[in-house]
Amino acid sequence: MNPARRANDIEPFRVMAILARARELETAGRDIIHMEVGEPDFATPEPVVEAGIAALRAGHTHYTPALGMPALRTAIADYYGLRYDLDVAPARVCVTPGASGALLLAMAALFNPGDEILLADPGYPCNRHFARLVEARAVGIPVGPETGYQLTAELVARHWGPRTRGVLVANPGNPTGTLIAPQELAAIHAEARARNAWLIVDEIYHELVYDTSPPSAANLGEDVLVLNSFSKYFLMTGWRLGWMLIPEMLLPSIDKLAQNIFLSATTMSQHAALVALAADTRVLLDQRKAELQRRRDALLPELARLGFEVKVAPQGAFYCYADVSRFGMSSEALCERLLLDAGVAITPGTDFGSHGANHNVRFAYTTSLARIQEAVRRIEVMLG
Ligand SMILES: Cc1ncc(COP(=O)(O)O)c(C=O)c1O
After folding, report:
1. In 123, 161, 305, 306, which residue has its Cα 20 to 30 A from 67's Cα atom?
2. What does pTM read for this prediction?
């Protein structure tokens, strides 16, 4: 007996092998600095935790409607008003189990077997696997520093094929932390719209943009699917909660799919999320964001000094994507050496696609400034 082909086709995260190796080394007594992990090291803020506990104590242990609690859908719609000055109808908000749940719902709702979705290579690896799951095909478009590792309207037009039905971008992106200029995103939207195709914009790191305050893609029109999450800025990875803004005409399809696939997102998390969105909590979250920015600003010059070439400075998220060509070994070999010889875990580019994958690595600054400084010291010693 064999598992289905789709299970074989979907690749594991290589970073998981690194993490497993790191854990083995830790068990053997080694001190490992974790810069491979794609989640903040900060705990969920106390008022949010308390709200989750209170929800459980109050007996909120049942399913919610498949698209989320009405109060939370309204709170998320209000968030777009407060944060982006956008008027979003609560009916267009679906609450999902993480951005992952939103991506899965979007793929399932929008694409037929054989349809193609254009996305950036390098990019978040799960996207092509979600496409595979619904028997669609992700077409990775090689992107480099010249376009800030993002798609452009010109690239989208050039790679359009007879089966292309959608474009997916992450803004800022993972693994590079780089942004698409608002006018470029608008031009990509125009390309997709002119061909009657969907644009999906993943804004999971949008609240973690440090120097500017870009508009949400929700301002481009109701036909854009905009997804987001409580995982990153809101520090709630383990609570498994995200959301998606969808055009109203997709509501019945997404509702049916959500009912069948998930029933609902986690109830206690939805109650806690109401507090996560509150102004008082955002003060705490902005402090954490400022700390992430301090780490980025400390790490970037050190990476340059050590010979890791960050060709486009990340404007957001918590990643630095660096070219390691000058070290004369593949990204996987370098990551292995850094782990074994320096006790520093980072992620090879091979986790994010194939373009440039063998000579790029991702540093996640999801550990304290002191640990980042120690990592730099160790890498310097290792490189001699
Ligand atoms: C670009 C991007 N999108 C989506 C996700 C999924 O996040 P979650 O399901 O925790 O919201 C991640 C997680 O790292 C990500 O980096």
Report:
1. 123
2. 0.97
